[in-house]
């Protein structure tokens, strides 16, 4: 059996069941990567590799671990932070659209590791991703 056949079999014809006092209920699973599975991390890395390669040239660094992604960029001003953020947001949105993925806004955060005064601004930078406005 070819490796591609093994992976295809791993991702197709999947079902999940839930049982209660009235019986067992089955539902076909048509999306996602089985979490906690032997191949889960490998498949996630395979998919995320294209995202990392797209974003990395535009930022300081991209770190990926398990099913999390950390995008680090640097700038010396509020405007620079927002411009870099818009670039990253557009690239991430492009990748999500192309690869049929979504960013979970409730699980996403933006952090600034510098005091506002050092950035030369009295107003907190803003970053807008689809469906969510981030404030630092």
A few lines on this structure:
With 136 residues, the protein is of the alpha+beta class.
Q: Can you tell me about this structure?
A:
The chain is α+β, with helices and mostly antiparallel strands and 136 residues long. Helix content is 38%, strand content 24%. The protein has helices at residues 3-11, 40-55, 78-99, 116-119; strands spanning 14-20, 23-29, 61-65, 68-72, 126-129, 132-135. It is elongated and about 60 Å long. The model has no long low-confidence stretch (mean pLDDT 77).
Work out the strand percent: 15-25%
The strand line-up of the biggest sheet is: 1-2
Tally the beta strands. Answer: 6
Instruction: Please state the average pLDDT score.
Output: 77
Q: Radius of gyration, Cα only, in angstroms?
A: 20 Å
Estimate the global geometry from the Cα principal axes: elongated
Distance between the termini: 51 Å
Regions with little confidence, pLDDT below 50 for 5+ residues? none
User: What is the element string, with H for helices and E for strands?
Assistant: HEEHEEHHEE
Count of DSSP helices? Answer: 4
Question: How many strands, which pairing sense, and closed or not: the largest β-sheet?
Answer: 2 strands, antiparallel
Helicity, in percent? 25-40%
Record keyword descriptors for this entry.
4 helices; 6 strands; 136 residues; alpha+beta; single chain; two-stranded antiparallel ribbon; two-stranded antiparallel sheet
